[in-house]
Backbone:
């Protein structure tokens, strides 16, 4: 799955960061990762592992949640970005699609998309991009005049992703894009992700629970557990790793097991013991 | 490790449900009570009673009341002043109408009357939410004040339109009127505060309290899982108003002794009590006390420092006091939006971990 | 085709499913111009696990909202336990023994896990305001009694460690679990789950599946479930309703549904194993 | 030393009225210290405490200052006055509410330590009506007189008196309330425009005064037929309306303008010495004069008390005796550099309310000054006397007070 | 026409005008609420502060003179100039922009993503703070607002409507205050401008986005700082206009800050988020309270306006909980 656009140039470098919420809750305990330009990098891990926190630390949205990076550094194209405000970061081409949709409820779907183009100065092109987004998500076109607050969960997810695309980013931080989407849409969204990655050269950092799909599309993966990176490697290798297979992909030697059979056994991750 | 809870295990759910599950807290609480009942009454003088303790205690009652409505049930109210006025006037009418009955009952009666009025003005809350409701409660504020000002029956047709509390006694000791001793004023307020705070604590930790908080946090979900919003909101209005009414009654009869409704129970009062609970901490009984203490003490303190110690002109001092109070409100909110109670909790968490940072 | 006589059928794994518990008859739901549900009928039988699937915006969540009385259908009837249900307020529906979880987690953020679950028992607690104010005596006894029941649920869901944590701070997956606990606390006849496994990794999905199966098994609770993970749906459910654009396009056992061309076209995209 | 608390309000909605009064009160005592070395050789000390016109702060101020040996309280707000009536009675400190407060306190038999000389609200209402009688050759039968009042205890004070007077003199009386703060008075003034009363009286305070005068000018109500109480007659009230306010009248408790010898002294001993209170820019205004006048009356009472008790450093109780024996004669005024500034009167055990005299002043917008247009006018004691007796009797009954002075 | 009817018409007309005056204040609230979900309690104080600054500049008052004099024993009062009104208005508007920047920088920035009630509370703190500063800076005496606005009843209207009474002795023609007429024109311009701004421009859209979700707005690159400074500046300007109008009526003094209380029912009725709502709400409240005072007031002793406005708004809300034009409150699970 590796493809030609990926280079060795590192776009984003996260160096051993530590994040504390509310001055007391230590969530990230030294996370480092690097995202190569033009690649799709996946950040995997269970609930509460700190994926969202990592992404927010990068996009500088932590401050508004009373969290702060207390150690380590983050650099984008070699520049430290810790002191930038989120808007400047967007201007530099880094945009985040937040977990849990976060559409602007009272704005219509179309207005939501247009706010995505806020930082852009080429007004005309934005209209073309609107068409592009509608092509990707025809459902949005149908609902363009409804207030986003009244659209279904999946529609809101599309709206949020479409909104990010509208800013013509260089890099997208994508937080759980597949959450709540119908299976065929999940594929579709990942296809879109892949398309923008390949065609527009957008670098993508992806936080996902759906390890299966994520590893199919990503080039490289990091696995995060309780605020630490416990494993990383090229996506194909991770997919073949037996632990990953068992704990993240839900397949064991005998192939996929039924959810009905999970009843009575508990497992323990080898690396946590 | 100044603050420890380790080693404090509970063996029954009832134990786990008590107000201060941690022994350290419990002991501190009893010490405070002992000082409040056993020491302060003997050393209090007129100044401390009238300028600090009595208003603090009464505001604490009002703040607990408003906190039930706003902090626990999420219904922001700006009608506190009006409801306090109901309490005051109800108390006045009861005091003058049934002089042979104990003042304590009058005050409780005033609470019940206010609860009724509160329910009436709480009805729109079923439809109206958020700031719309807050502004709507101003209707109660303005209407009630107007009513008490306009209808002579409420002030027994006195020429001035003011109401004055006649002397009443509890166990033969005057608690209202000019001849009340400082300690008597203080003590009657203290008794009310302790009992009411205890009731509030019980109500907020049980089913009713949870239904309030559910409505506050997410009213639709609450309704879908089985909370009757009508009941939850109206009980919150009723109980909150009961507290506020008692605060109003005490404010009039014990603290001020004479009241003109527009001046004493105007909209500023509503805001003041709201400040107390926000600064103290929404949804926290301790916060109600902290907020009341802070906002009663701060101006007195500032005044004593600026005028008394530094000898500034009173007008400069008053302006600077405004600036400082306003500034402090902002600073506090920036440091800890969830109020003094939350600061206290964080401090405890820090102390527990001490000397380790995390 | 299963034998669907009036008094139930036996599932593949040999469980006895009872008579009709709830029946939706010709439900139509409109919002202004949008028709979210169009003339849909289906039933839910006692003891079964019934899945509702369909693409985003199909009207699944709206259907649950109709069942819980939050949306009033423009047309159609709801039958519960053999009688037509008049239009009830949501809390009255809850009192009839219908509990649910929500697609976008709707926990009470200001309260602890314990309090959230205790709130779920709201419908079962009876002590008067006076008794609660006094506390000592009746109220305390009742509280302790229900606390025990709640502790059982906490044990069952394995969330003992977060008993006293404010739910706002919990990671997503745990929040979902708490929400399930809150619904279970009401000891419902019928449990409605709206995407209980969205945003979870395989491991967590397995846990959640286990809980659902156990609830169904141990308490005999009837379950209606919306889910996008086909693996889960196929493995867990006894019968599946498929919706698309507000219409019902399929209804039957997982296998029947999987084979249905309309369902494949509208929803599954590729057929899923 | 002789302690005079000054419960001032230099902030809040009424600050504009509170500042000049407080300055005047303070400057007069400063003058006494600087020029005469105090009163009877004992220096005075002013303890100022900011109330913001707020009752609770008033209570705090009272409690904070009473321990310092405060001789007399001048609470300056009806609300605070009502607080202090019982409190001062219990503490044995006299209260002086000059031209405000509880009117029936004029009855010294019931209110032993409250004084409201030289005139009260009911006097004010009567003085205004008497002025109108003078203008109309003694007959105002059939005339329409409206009262625009602040909808509070203060504003309602004159209503009863005016009703009685309307019965007596046969004029049509109508009361029109304005709710606090009184920023918007369209309805009231449209009503006045419709009904065209011959005269409008006003019991206003704060912003209500300014708006009322502006609105009266807007509907072109003849300003000379518009008369305010003495709390509606300061420069603050008329200046914002500009030329429109020309001709507006108000009652005056005391002289106006700076043409009194005392101002030379104040300039010399206080202002030039850099000891003026506040910003020092209020000297000569109406409310400044009122503060000064109140201070002068207090100082005279101290002198009286010193004379009676033969001691310089008097106690509050002795001060009370001084106030009850106060006599203000033309000579006293003259001696204080305020000839003709206030009425001549004396206080007695029965009468704490003074003579009930007041003047009428009129605003000249071009000269930006008030000028007195009448001499002292008396009030109708036949009407007011019974009202006071009735109200104070009610108070006495309510509080189990037995009459003094018998 | 019968006399009572004529008077009722006159009362209605004046009610409309009064409503416009309320709407001027309400507009400021709406703007800030729309852009940040903040219920800006300080709006009234901002009007006072703006008016004080305007008058102070015009009369060449030295800011903080009293404080300076008290500390250094100087005798400063005036610079000794008299500034033309237009220049003073521009400068005062400039001061409001600076204020907006300061507010954003020292207050709002730190409160991103907080609950509305906390933000509301912070603006109350701000109100106190500015009240203190305003007093300290310009003094608490009453000042005359003189920017050359016409005032007083319009003769022209009075004369040209007298015939409506058809010889009725008691009817003198309609009374309309010229100041109110000017206010109406200004309000109309302001509203039209603001509606266009918020509905059809990029910044307007961004402003509404910010109101919905601070974090999401940040994440798409909207600079909260810029939007807030912008909106608070506009609100500051609206406050200045309101301050001028109300100041002309009553003189510039502390009570000016209380006009906020007249604006709240307007806001509630029109909807917190709707600019046209502020105007329509103002008109309804203005007419409603005046007519009520005119017809029912005499029966219940008058002075009903304060509470009636609120009760009227309350009744409206029971039927439309989001106000007349407010955005529908989205209730979903
Ligand atoms: N605002 C906050 N205050 C306190 N703790 C927080 C806050 N946000 C997150 N946390 C804690 O930080 C930890 C990591 O959370 P985070 O949301 O980053 O996890 P995640 O990997 O994104 O999980 P999920 O897959 O469920 O989204 C969790 O334990 C959570 O409880
Ligand atoms: N209250 C409402 N007002 C207007 N439209 C609504 C409302 N609720 C739902 N809708 C519309 O009805 C349709 C069905 O929504 P619903 O939430 O039921 O979809 P869903 O099947 O649950 O989708 P998803 O899987 O994405 O959650 C959507 O198009 C949505 O926009
Ligand atoms: Mg996450
Ligand atoms: Mg859904």
Residues:
């Amino acid at each position: 799955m590796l493809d030609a656009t990926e280079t060795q140039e590192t776009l984003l470098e996260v160096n051993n960061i530590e994040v504390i919420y509310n001055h007391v809750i230590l969530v990230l305990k030294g996370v480092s990762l690097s995202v190569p330009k033009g690649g799709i990098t996946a950040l995997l891990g269970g609930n509460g592992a700190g994926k969202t926190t990592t992404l927010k630390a990068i996009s500088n949205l932590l401050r508004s949640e009373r969290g702060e990076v207390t150690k380590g550094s983050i650099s984008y194209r070699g520049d430290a970005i810790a002191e930038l405000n989120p808007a400047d970061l967007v201007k530099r081409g880094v945009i985040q699609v937040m977990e849990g949709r976060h559409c602007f409820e009272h704005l219509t779907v179309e207005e939501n998309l247009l706010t995505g183009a806020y930082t852009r100065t080429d007004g005309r092109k934005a209209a073309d991009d609107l068409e592009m987004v509608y092509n990707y998500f025809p459902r949005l076109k149908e609902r363009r005049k409804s207030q986003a607050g009244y659209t279904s969960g999946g529609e809101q997810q599309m709206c949020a992703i479409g909104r990010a695309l509208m800013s013509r980013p260089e890099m997208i931080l994508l937080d759980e894009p597949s959450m709540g989407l119908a299976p065929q849409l999940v594929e579709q969204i990942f296809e879109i992700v892949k398309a923008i990655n390949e065609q527009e050269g957008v670098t993508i950092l992806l936080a996902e629970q759906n390890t299966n799909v994520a590893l199919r599309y990503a080039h490289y993966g990091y696995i995060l557990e309780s605020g630490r990176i416990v494993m990383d490697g090229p996506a194909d290798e991770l997919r073949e790793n037996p632990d990953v297979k068992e704990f993240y992909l839900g397949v064991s030697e005998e192939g996929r097991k039924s959810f009905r059979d999970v009843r009575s056994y508990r497992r323990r991750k080898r690396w946590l013991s | 490790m100044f603050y420890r809870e380790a080693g404090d295990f509970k063996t029954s759910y009832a134990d786990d449900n008590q107000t201060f599950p941690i022994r350290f807290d419990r002991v501190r609480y009893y010490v405070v009570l002992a000082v409040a009942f056993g020491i302060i009454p003997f050393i209090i003088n007129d100044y401390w009673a009238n300028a600090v303790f009595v208003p603090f205690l009464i505001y604490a009652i009002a703040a607990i009341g408003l906190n039930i409505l706003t902090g626990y049930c999420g219904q922001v109210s700006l009608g506190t002043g009006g409801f306090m006025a109901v309490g005051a006037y109800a108390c006045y009418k009861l005091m003058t109408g049934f002089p042979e009955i104990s003042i304590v009952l009058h005050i409780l009666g005033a609470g019940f009357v206010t609860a009724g009025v509160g329910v009436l003005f709480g009805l729109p809350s079923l439809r109206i939410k958020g700031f719309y409701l807050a502004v709507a409660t101003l209707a109660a504020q303005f209407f009630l004040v107007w009513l008490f000002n306009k209808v002579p029956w409420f002030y027994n047709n006195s020429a001035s339109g003011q109401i004055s509390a006649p002397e009443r006694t509890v166990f033969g000791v005057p608690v209202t009127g000019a001849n009340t001793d400082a300690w008597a004023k203080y003590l009657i307020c203290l008794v009310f505060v302790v009992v009411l705070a205890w009731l509030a604590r019980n109500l907020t930790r049980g089913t009713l309290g949870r239904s309030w908080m559910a409505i506050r946090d997410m009213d639709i979900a609450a309704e879908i899982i089985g909370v009757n919003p009508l009941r939850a909101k109206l009980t919150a209005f009723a109980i909150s108003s009961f507290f506020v009414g008692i605060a109003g009654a005490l404010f009039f009869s014990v603290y001020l002794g004479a009241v003109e409704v527009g001046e004493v129970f105007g909209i500023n009062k509503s805001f003041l009590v709201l400040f107390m609970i926000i600064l103290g901490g929404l949804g926290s009984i301790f916060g109600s006390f902290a907020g009341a203490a802070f906002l009663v003490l701060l101006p007195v303190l500032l005044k004593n420092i600026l005028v008394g110690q530094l000898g500034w002109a009173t007008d400069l001092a008053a302006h600077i006091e405004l600036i400082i109070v306003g500034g402090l409100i902002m600073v506090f909110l920036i440091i800890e939006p969830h109020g003094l109670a939350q600061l206290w909790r964080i401090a405890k968490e820090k102390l527990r971990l001490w000397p380790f940072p995390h | 085709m299963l034998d669907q006589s009036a008094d139930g059928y036996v599932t593949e794994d040999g469980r006895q499913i009872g008579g009709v518990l709830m029946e939706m008859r010709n439900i139509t739901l409109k919002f202004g111009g949008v028709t979210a549900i169009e003339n849909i009928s289906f039933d839910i039988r006692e003891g079964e696990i019934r899945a509702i699937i369909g693409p985003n915006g199909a009207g699944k969540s709206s259907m649950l909202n109709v069942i819980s009385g939050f949306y009033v259908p423009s047309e159609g009837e709801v039958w519960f336990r053999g009688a037509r249900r008049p239009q009830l307020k949501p809390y009255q529906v809850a009192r009839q023994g219908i509990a649910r979880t929500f697609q976008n987690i709707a926990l009470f953020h200001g309260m602890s896990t314990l309090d959230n679950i205790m709130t779920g028992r709201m419908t079962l607690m009876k002590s008067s305001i006076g008794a609660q104010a006094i506390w000592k005596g009746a109220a305390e006894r009742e509280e302790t009694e229900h606390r025990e029941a709640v502790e059982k649920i906490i044990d069952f869901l394995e969330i003992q460690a977060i008993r006293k944590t404010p739910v706002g701070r919990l990671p997503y997956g745990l929040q979902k679990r708490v929400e399930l606990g809150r619904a279970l606390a009401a000891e419902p006849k019928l449990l409605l789950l709206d995407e209980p496994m969205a945003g979870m990794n395989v491991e967590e999905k397995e846990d959640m599946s286990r809980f659902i199966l156990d609830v169904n098994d141990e308490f005999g609770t009837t379950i209606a479930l919306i889910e996008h993970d086909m693996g889960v749906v196929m493995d867990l459910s006894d019968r599946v309703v498929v919706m698309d654009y507000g219409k019902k396009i399929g209804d039957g056992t997982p296998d029947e549904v999987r084979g249905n061309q309309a369902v494949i076209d509208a929803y599954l995209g590729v057929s899923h194993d | 030393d002789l302690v005079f608390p000054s419960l001032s309000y230099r902030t809040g909605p009424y600050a504009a009225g509170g500042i000049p009064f407080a300055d005047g009160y303070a400057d007069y005592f400063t003058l006494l210290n600087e020029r005469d070395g105090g009163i009877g050789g004992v220096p005075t000390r002013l303890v100022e405490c900011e109330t913001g016109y707020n009752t609770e702060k008033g209570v705090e101020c009272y409690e904070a200052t009473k321990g310092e040996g405060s001789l007399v309280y001048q609470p300056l707000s009806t609300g605070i006055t009502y607080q202090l009536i019982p409190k001062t009675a219990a503490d044995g400190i006299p209260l002086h509410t000059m031209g405000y407060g509880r009117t029936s306190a004029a009855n010294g038999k019931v209110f032993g330590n409250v004084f409201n000389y030289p005139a009260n609200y009911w006097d004010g209402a009567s003085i205004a009506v008497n002025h109108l009688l003078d203008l109309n050759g003694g007959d105002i039968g059939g005339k329409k007189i409206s009262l625009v009042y602040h909808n509070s205890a203060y504003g309602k004070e004159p209503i009863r008196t005016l009703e009685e007077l309307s019965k007596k003199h046969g004029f049509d009386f109508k009361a029109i309330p304005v709710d606090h703060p009184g920023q918007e008075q369209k309805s009231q003034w449209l009503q006045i425009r419709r009904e065209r009363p011959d005269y409008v009286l006003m019991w206003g305070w704060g912003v209500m005064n300014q708006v009322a005068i502006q609105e009266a000018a807007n509907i072109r109500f003849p300003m000379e037929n518009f008369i305010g109480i003495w709390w509606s007659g300061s420069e603050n009230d008329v200046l914002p309306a500009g030329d429109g306010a020309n001709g507006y009248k108000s009652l005056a408790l005391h002289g106006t303008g700076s043409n009194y010898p005392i101002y030379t002294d104040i300039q010399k001993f206080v202002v030039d010495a850099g000891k003026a209170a506040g910003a020092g820019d209020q000297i000569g205004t109406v409310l400044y004069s009122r503060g000064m006048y109140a201070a002068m009356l207090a100082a005279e009472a101290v002198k009286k008390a010193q004379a009676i008790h033969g001691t310089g450093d008097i106690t509050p109780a002795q001060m009370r005796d001084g106030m009850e024996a106060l006599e203000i004669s033309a000579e006293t005024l003259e001696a204080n550099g305020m000839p003709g500034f206030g009425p001549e009167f004396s206080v007695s055990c029965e009468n704490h309310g003074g003579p009930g005299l007041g003047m009428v002043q009129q605003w000249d917008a071009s000269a930006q000054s008030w000028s007195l247009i009448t001499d002292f006018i008396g009030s109708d004691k036949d009407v007011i006397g019974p009202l006071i007796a009735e109200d104070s009797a009610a108070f006495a009954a309510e509080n189990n007070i037995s009459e003094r002075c018998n | 026409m019968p006399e009572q009817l004529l008077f009722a018409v006159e009362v209605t007309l004046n009610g409309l005008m009064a409503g416009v005056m309320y709407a001027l204040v309400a507009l400021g609230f709406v703007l800030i609420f729309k852009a940040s979900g903040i219920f800006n309690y300080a709006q009234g104080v901002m009007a006072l502060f703006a008016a004080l600054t305007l008058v102070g500049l015009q009369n060449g008052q030295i800011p903080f003179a009293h404080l300076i004099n008290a500390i250094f024993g100087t005798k400063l009062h005036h610079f000794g100039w008299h500034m033309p009104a237009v220049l003073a208005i521009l400068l005062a508007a400039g001061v409001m922009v600076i204020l907006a920047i300061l507010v954003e920088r020292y207050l709002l920035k730190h409160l991103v993503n907080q609950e509305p009630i906390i933000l509301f509370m912070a603006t109350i703190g701000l109100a106190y703070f500015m009240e203190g500063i305003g007093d300290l800076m310009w003094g608490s005496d009453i000042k005359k607002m003189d920017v050359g606005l016409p005032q007083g009843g319009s003769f022209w209207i009075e004369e040209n409507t007298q015939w409506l009474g058809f010889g009725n002795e008691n009817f003198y023609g309609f009374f309309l205050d010229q100041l109110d007429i000017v206010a109406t024109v200004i309000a109309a311009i302001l509203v039209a401008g603001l509606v266009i701004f918020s509905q059809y421009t990029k910044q307007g859209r961004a402003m509404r986005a910010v109101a919905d979700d601070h974090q999401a707005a940040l994440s798409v690159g909207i600079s909260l700082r810029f939007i807030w400074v912008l909106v608070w500046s506009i609100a500051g300007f609206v406050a200045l206009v309101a301050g001028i109008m109300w100041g002309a009526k009553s003189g510039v003094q502390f009570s000016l800050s209380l006009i906020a209380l007249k604006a709240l029912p307007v806001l509630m009725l029109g909807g917190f988020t709707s600019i046209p709502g502020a105007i329509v709400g103002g008109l309804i409240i203005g007419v409603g309270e005046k007519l009520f005072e005119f017809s029912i007031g005499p029966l219940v002793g008058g002075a009903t306006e304060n509470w009636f406005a609120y009760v009227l708004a309350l009744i409206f809300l029971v039927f439309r909980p989001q106000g007349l034009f407010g955005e529908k409150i989205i209730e979903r699970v």
